[in-house]
Specification:
By secondary structure, this protein is an alpha/beta fold. The protein has one domain: TIM Barrel (Alpha-Beta Barrel), CATH 3.20.20.70. Helices cover 42% and strands 15% of the residues. The protein contains 10 helices and 9 strands. A 6-stranded parallel beta sheet has the order 5-4-3-2-1-9, with helices on both faces. The chain has a 3-stranded parallel beta sheet with strand order 6-7-8. Helix 4 links the parallel strand 3 and strand 4. Helix 2 crosses helix 3. The chain is globular, with a radius of gyration of 16 Å. The chain starts with a helix and ends in a 6-residue tail after the last helix. The model has no long low-confidence stretch (mean pLDDT 97). The structure holds 3-phosphoglyceric acid (3PG). The site of 3-phosphoglyceric acid has 13 residues, from strand 9. Its EC number is 4.1.2.14. Belongs to the KHG/KDPG aldolase family. It catalyses: 2-dehydro-3-deoxy-6-phospho-D-gluconate = D-glyceraldehyde 3-phosphate + pyruvate. Keywords: Carbohydrate metabolism, Lyase, Schiff base. Homotrimer.
Amino acid sequence: MKARTETLRKYVRMAPVIPVVTIEDARTSIDLAHTLVRAGLAVVEVTLRTPAALDAIAAIAKAVPEAIVAAGTVLTESQIAEVADAGAKFIVTPGTPPKLAERLSAAPIPVMPGCATVTEAMALAEAGFEILKFFPASASGGAAWLRSVQGPLPALSFCPTGGIDQASAPAYLSLANVPCVGGTWVAPAELLRKGDFDRIGELAAAAAALRRPT
Ligand code: 3PG
């Protein structure tokens, strides 16, 4: 678990934003990954919400080795091996029921499990996880929640996702327990459908320029 946590720590520090993408056509995933990497966003979360998701993860892992592709929206135990076999570098869950948490703690790749409450965060910490997804961030208390848990949960860091955009990201990124944020605003489904990689590149460059003040 320790080595996997350190690997995940490296990934979440690579860029201020992890684009969360839902891919309908796996063929677009390689252009997407190149566009994001070129703009300075090396980490991308491909959600398992479409039939093309596993192929997209495999395509990115094979064709764009400089990208760190995560599998998002992992909901079931059986998906753990599927995404690891496809080449995902880490796993993200929106929420983490106890049985899934147990299986995830034995996953072959790092995991950023989702939580939305202090109790859920404590349960995940007890299972050995130190870097959590806070989801749905804005609906669950936003930056104020994250600031409030710094005192009682000093060993944990969070990647808040859900309802965050370019304008609201800086408030999250200014917090010491937030190495990065996630969101769909960088590569929205509509732009992906149109194949508008110029616009995605612009949004990604703006997101990559978001830095927390040191
Ligand atoms: C996720 O799975 O992380 C969410 O779907 C993020 O969506 P949003 O950035 O559009 O709120």
